[in-house]
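Example record

Each entry pairs one chain with its bound ligand, adenosine-5'-diphosphate.
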Amino acid sequence: PGTERPQGRVVDDEEGGLLFLFGSHHSSSAKHGYASIEKQRQRLPVFKYRTAILYLVETHATTIIVGETGSGKTTQIPQYLKEAGWATGGRLIACTQPRRLAVQAVASRVAEEMGVKLGEEVGYTIRFEDVTKPDVTVLKFLTDGVLLREMMDDPLLTKYSVIMVDEAHERSISTDILLGLLKKIQRRRPELRLIISSATIEAKSMSDFFQMRKKRRETENKDHGPQVEPAILSVEGRGFNVQINYAEEPVQDYVQAAVSTTLLIHERESAGDVLVFLTGQDDIDAAVQLLTDQVQTTGKHSSGLIVLPLYSGLPRADQELVFSPAPRGKRKVVISTNIAETSLTLEGIVYVVDSGFSKQRFYNPISDIENLVVAPISRASARQRAGRAGRVRPGKCYSFSMALCCYTGIFSSDMQRDPATPMLYTEEYFLNHMPNAGIPEIQRSNMVSCVIQLKALGIDNILGFDWPASPSAEAMIRALEVLYSLGILDDDAKLTSPTGFQVAEIPLDPMVSKMIIASSQLGCSEEIITIAAVLSVQSIWISGRGIQKESDEAKLRFAAAEGDHVTFLNVYKGFHQSGKSSQWCHKNYVNYHAMRKVLEVREQLKRIAKRIGLVLKSCESDMQLVRKAVIAGFFANACHLEAYSHDGMYKTLRGSQEVYIHPSSVLFRVNPKWVIYHSLVSTDRQYMRNVLTIDPSCLMDAAPHFYKLQQSNHLLF
Ligand code: ADP
Ligand code: MG
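C-alpha cells for the complex follow.
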C-alpha cells in the first residue's frame, strides 16, 4: 500500500524503542451520506495519528499502539488499514479481542460506520458463531482464542495481511499464546504486519518481547523488508478530570452499597449516565433487581432511571440497549463486569461507581484446582474504571471496596485530581495494598487447554516456548499429567491418534471434549452433546433475590437423582417438547435466552462431532451410559463425602481439598457419598457446581493409571 511519508520527528525514547512523534493531518474522503459518522470519526483522538499509524505499519513488522480507552483504536485502525489498501487481493485484516461480547459490539459498530451490513465486508467470529462471508469479508473481528484455532488449519495465518492484537494489556491466556505464536510466524512471513494495541503504558515489555536477536536483525534488514525493531506509538487522549470520592468506612455488602450510591447520585447529581462495576452475572442481576425494587418502593425516581445489565452472555437485544442513548430526561445506569473497563466504550457516562472487585481466575497447581474468585482489582484497573467517567465531560467516580472503603461523606469531597494520578480508595490502601498491575492470566490458570493447542500446532517443546510471560513449571507438569491420564497425550507427550487430535478439534475444555468422544464410543453422544451445550452457557436457571423459593421449586420438577447433568437432559426434553416456547421457560424458571444458546451450541457441536468422525447416537433412557461418559472426562474431579461431616463437607480425591455442593445444584443437601463435579467456584467456601453421583468403582475403570497413582498416596477405597 502506498502511504505518504508523514511530517514528523523520530526520536529514541529512553526505553530503547523508537518513539515517533507526529503532528500530521489527513483529509479523509468523506463518503456521501455518512457525513455525520465521518465527522464523529474525525473527532476521535486516533484520527490525528492516521498517517503516522499507516506509515509505521508499512515500515515495521510490529507496531505497538498505546492509547486511552475510547480514543478509537479498535474501531478506527482496522478501517484505516482497509482504506490504505491492506485488504486487497484476497487478503484480510484481523482484529482480536479477549472477550466475545466486545467482538460482536465492535464489529457491529464498524459495520455501521462503514455503512455496510454486518457479516459482509465487516464480519466477526466467536466460538460457535461465524458471521463472515468468504471472499467478501475483509475486516474480521474475532476472539484471540478463535484466531488460535484458525492456526490449526492455516499455521501461518496466510490469509491475513495485518493482525491487530487488541487489548493486549489484559494479558488473557489466549492473547499471550497468540503473541508467542505470532512472533514465530513473523520469522516465516516477514510481510505479515502486527499491531499490538493496549490501553495502558506497558509498551516496554511488549517491545522487548518482539525485539529480535541482533544477528537475525542484521540478516533481515538486508532484504529491505520491514524493520524488525518494533515501533511504539502513543496516542494522546483527551480525557477530562475525574473527581474521585471515597468513603472512610468499610461496606459490608458491595452490591447494596453500589445500589445506594447509584440512588444518591440520581437524587443529587446533575444529568449524566452512571456506570457501575460489579463482578459477574450473579451480583449484577442482584443489583439490577435491588435497584428496580427500591425505585419502585420509594416511587421517587421511578420515571427517571433506566437500569441495564452488561456481562458476557447477555442476549443481543439487551447489548444494543446498553449502547443506545437514554431517552431525553432519563438517566441510564449500566451495571457491568469489567468488560466496560477497557473493552467497550459507553457514551454519556459521567459517574462511575466502582466496587473495587472483579472475578479472576486462580489456579493452584498443587491441588490442581482452578476457580473464579472475586478478588480486588489492581491500581491500573482502578484508574481505568475511574477514567470511564471523564469521557464526555468532567466526571465523578465513587469507589469503595470492602478492604477499606469509602462510603460516608462521598458527596462532601471536593477534591479535584489530575486524571493521570487519580487516587482511588484511601491513600493507604491505594499505595500499600492494591497491587500495581494484574498478574497475566497464564500465570494463574490451568494449562491443559493451552498445552493441547500448542501440541496440535506441532510445538512439542512446550517448556521451551517463547512466552511473553512464562507459566509455572508446576502448572505445565500438572497439565501434561492430566492429559496423559485422559489418553490425550502418549508416553512421548505427543497427541494420541485419534483421541488427542479429536480433542484438539473441539473448542471446549479438554475434559468436556473427552467426555464427548467417550460418549460416541458408549452410544450416548446425543445426550452428552446436550449436556456439553448446557455446561457451556452460564446458567439455564433464572435466579435472583426474591424468587429463590419459586425457582427452587421449579427446579425440583426436573431434578434427577443422578444429579445436575441428568437434570439438564430433563429440562432440555421439556423445552423441546414445549416447542421451544418462551412461555414454558418463564413458567419453569428456565432462562429462555440461555436455552436458545444451548440449541445453537448443540448444533455446532454436532457438526464438529460429525466432521471428526464421531457417531451420533441416543442411549434413550440408559443414564448409566451417560454417567460413564461424564466420568471418562471428569474422573479427576471425584470427591467423597467426609464420613463424620455434618455440614456436607466433601474431599477431593486428588489433593484432599475441602469442597461443598453448591446451593444451585439439585444434589444440594442430598449429599450422596461419591460425586464428581464440573467446576468449582469459591466464595466463603469452595463450592462444586454441576454435580453427578458416581459409583467409585467406575473411576478405576475409567482411569486405572490415574487412580492407581492416587491410591498409593492416599487410602481411598
Ligand atoms: P478504543 O479501542 O481506543 O478504546 P473504540 O474504537 O472502541 O476506542 O471507540 C471509539 C469511539 O467509538 C468511542 O467514542 C465509542 O463511544 C464509539 N463506539 C464504539 N463502539 C460503539 C458502539 N457499539 N456504539 C456506539 N458507539 C461506539
Ligand atoms: Mg478498544
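The CA atoms of residues 562 and 693 lie 5 Å apart.
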